[in-house]
Model the fold of this input.
Amino acid sequence: MTAKIALRGLGHEYVNPFTRERVLALDGLDLEVPAGEFLTMVGPSGCGKSTLLGILAGLVTPTRGTVLVDGRPVTGPGRDRGVVFQEFAVLPWRTVERNIAHGLEIQGVARAERAAAVRRFVELIGLQGFEQKYPHELSGGMRQRVAVARTLAANPEVMLMDEPFAAVDAQTRITLQEELNAIAQATGKTIVFVTHNVEEAVFLGDRCCVLSRRPGRVKTLVPVTIPRARRTWKLFTSDPAFSATKDQVLRLVREEVGGEEDAR
Amino acid sequence: MLAAGTGAWALAAATLPLPDYYLPPPTAVLDALADLTVKGILPTYVLESLRRILLAAVFGVVVGVPVGLALGVSRRVADFFHPILNFFQSVSGIAWLPLMLVWFGFGERTILVAVNYTVLFPVIFNALLGVRSVPRIYVSAMRTMGAGRWRIVVDVLLPGALPSIATGLRLGLAYGWRALIAAEMLVGAHGLGFMIFNAQNFHLTARIMLGMGIIGVLWLILDYFLLRPVEEATIARWGLVQR
Done:
């Protein structure tokens, strides 16, 4: 069976528009992600994590190497790969409901079917009663919930998430992580989740991919063996396997930053 | 404020040793209002001026907004047109009037060209700026959901540019209103500008003041009933501007 996502000899070089310097963000990166896997990705800042996600999304064209999804090369964005961005990317001029339905609207799904999907995902992410609100009336955490629901509702095969919970407070982040865990378990989607938070990476991932410092390539893939059903913060943080894995990943990341920077 | 101002004016007109045509009292302006209304001159001129500015407003929306949006979509095109639009925005319709009189004659045509021109450029310019200011992340998000070019324009660029488009329309119509009065003065084909300029020939100072007051009040009304409701229903509701 072929992998859901396969990256071969991936390299990306770009010119920084401000300094005019050429930056080699990724170089010789190989990676395979099987269908249904939740892969988290950590690495020192500037290692090209977000570039890599942009390439998977088809928003960035790599300068070298191949990107295959379901064995087909990626040539641009496509609705088979949904993205949840780090910044707030839900549209301020659409209500919660219309934001969530947007992907389906683009796909030309009939109104009744859209309404049913909205109801389902509003419930899944706990936004009942907020359907008619505009994003500026919601907290940061709720806005990211809308973004996750919008991506899920469009029903992509692969979900690409770029530090989606980085901008929300610690309490909300834990709730969102637990929710995402449940969603991953319920939907069985292939997920690539970029973060700079090692704890988050270990809590969410089936495997945690540690990238090297720039130019980024895969340094180590660390499997997380704790079953998904046991992943609530209460159970998880008291599990010795969790702290062992977390320490291992943290050590690997710190090797890359040379201890100058706290990678957590 | 208004009462105090009017009071001071009435007092000055009554006490200062000035001829009536130099500073007529407020009552004289009210008399002029009643007189011109009864004769039907004022309603005709007001409607004439309003017709011209509303025509220009429609023109600005129908032509200016799409052109501004289209030019704003590509960064390269926007960068090219930016200084050109900025140039024509600053050379107001009033500065064009002498040339337009040569080209289009002393008539309605010159007035309409001057006003529409004056409204158009700020609308195009601000629509272009508005498109450029829409966060690119919204466009990226749409593309990953499979949206095509047209849908991105309708769902993202147009609503995202609305605050700027509203500013452009406000500015454009305010400039256009001034250009209209100036054009009516020079061309002399009805309208409020014609009324106040013509009144000066006959030392009908109260009539001039009345015309000036009406020009200001009409603008307040236009702004309040035409532009504000649109803003309230869209950009204020979406949290794009603070009220």
About this structure: The interface with chain B takes residues 57-59, 76-79, 81-83, 85, 87, 89-93, 102-103, 106-107, 134-137, 150, 154 of chain A (CB under 8 Å). The mean pLDDT of chain A is 89. The beta strands of chain A are 5-15, 22-33, 38-42, 64-69, 72-73, 81-84, 158-162, 190-194, 207-211, 218-223.
